Amino acid sequence: xxxxxxxxxxxxxxxxxxxxxxxxxxxxxxxxxxxxxxxxxxxxxxxxxxxxxxxxxxxxxxxxxxxxxxxxxxxxxxxxxxxxxxxxxxxxxxxxxxxxxxxxxxxxxxxxxxxxxxxxxxxxxxxxxxxxxxxxxxxxxxxxxxxxxxxxxxxxxxxxxxxxxxxxxxxxxxxxxxxxxxxxxxxxxxxxxxxxxxxxxxxxxxxxxxxxxxxxxxxxxxxxxxxxxxxxxxxxxxxxxxxxxxx
Length: 247
Fold this sequence. Notes:
The chain is α+β, with helices and mostly antiparallel strands. The protein is 17% helix and 25% strand. It is built from four helices and twelve strands; from the N terminus they run E-E-H-E-E-E-H-H-H-E-E-E-E-E-E-E. A five-stranded mixed beta sheet has the order 2-1-5-3-4, covered by helices on one side. A five-stranded antiparallel beta sheet has the order 11-8-7-6-12, with no helix packed on it. Strands 9-10 form a two-stranded antiparallel sheet. It starts with 9 loop residues before the first strand and ends in an 18-residue tail after the last strand.
């Protein structure tokens, strides 16, 4: 049976070489139980994990380890809320860093050249009067905008409501904005969500204009059809959910 969040759970920041994520753990867990749960979060096998507890008054860190990790419980370390647990790998093979491709030169076709090619998506849209090449596009846009606002009303998408984002449903959060965003291409309303985990793309602002306040990577703007409103609680570290496969 999966462990569920209780009043004794403690929020902590799990930090690894790949990413960081706020999670909840229970002091009654053993070190072995914690490592097993951290494996799906960090990608580091439990047998190769080296855990270090770091506090503001102890930046050098304290090792979370014991001779019998199957019996030793986390309560021995008196974990305060929002302490940092750093997870390092003792296996050199798992620490290989993949070089970034950002420095690799990329070919970009000139717009004029692409527009002149016969067998492209652009050429297909032109010949079939699709999108901006549709003479009835203004009417279609008005209908689409009206449909989006109607969907917002039907789905009860309102500021302050809890939600989960589709299609993967791995990201949960609170709706922080509903309305137009001229800085984003496309017509109609958008929904701004403050996520529970740093799995977003912004801090609630777009192109320098702020729509709501949140920490970096906790904000995201999506179309209404991707928002499902409901009583979606924040996930703890031990929750049975695909969320643990993604940071």
